[in-house]
Amino acid sequence: MNKRKIILDCDPGHDDAVAIILAAKNPNLELLGITVVAGNQTLENTQRNALHLVQHLDLNLPVYAGCGQPMVRDKVIAGDIHGETGLDGPVFEKLNREIEADHAVNYIIKTLMNSPEKITMVTTGPMTNLGMALRMEPKIVNKIQEIVFMGGSYANGNVTPAAEFNILADAEAAHVCISSGLPITMVGLDVTRKALCYPEIVERMRKVGNKASDLFTDLMAFFCKTQKEVYGWEGGPLHDPITIAYLIDPTVLTTKAMNVTIDTSSSQSYGRTNCDYFGYMKKEPNVNVGIDIDVEKFWDIVEDGLKLYD
């Protein structure tokens, strides 16, 4: 079976880190590169975090820095959840890995245009890099197999009552991606809030007993603490890795085809993913929206992914 080629565009971020862990060594995926955007923290921090992760896990993966601010709006970051560095908690060794010289948007365009096979774009942060790539070179739509993104919600947001962070951070870029006509799967808060990393889950993963599981444990110690402080969760929702779990085993998610638009004009609901769950508007569905998750299967995928490391 041919491996599914992916580019992971992220803003590490504790849950982004777990997405990288799952994607990098899965035998059915070929992670071509990691592109980084500002989101959970500034671009300076998120690119450093990505380098720390690939170095710590001894991954032979290039990391490209992309956009440090949204296409239109002012920059927002999620320091209350991910800390001052964006990856508070783990203590990493001195950084020796370096960022690639090419800009992430240029890398995305070149890689897609030069690939004989279609590539899946996975975004787990604001969609600025992919949105810019689609605007700079529209021909890449013919080279993308699917966009799988963590973001949005057909119910409640997590930054405002209407909006989820990744979409709020750059709603215009999300609009560009969502309206591209490409196959799209949305992994929103409706499913990610069901994958809560309770203490017993952390302990289960710790028992794997390798470098990846130790990192997971350190990541979750900080992440779950801030999630409880901000939202009252007893375990932090592990948003981003569900995109990779879906690619590993699509049956982990139940999806529903809906027409989805991005609110880019409202003062109160900017960044909302308007998902026509019941088909009221009689418009053609353009996104497969996650509406349920097999939580037990998801944690099995996470555990299996950790076990692939030495």
Automatic annotation (TrEMBL):
Domain of life of the organism encoding this protein: Bacteria
InterPro entries: I/U_nuclsd_hydro_CS, Inosine/uridine_hydrolase_dom, IUNH, Ribo_hydro-like
CDD domains: nuc_hydro_IU_UC_XIUA (cd02651)
Domain Inosine/uridine-preferring nucleoside hydrolase, chain residue ranges per copy: 6-300
EC number: 3.2.2.8
GO molecular function: purine nucleosidase activity; uridine nucleosidase activity
Keyword tags: Glycosidase, Hydrolase
Pfam family, one: IU_nuc_hydro
Protein name according to UniProt: Pyrimidine-specific ribonucleoside hydrolase RihB
UniProt gene name: rihB
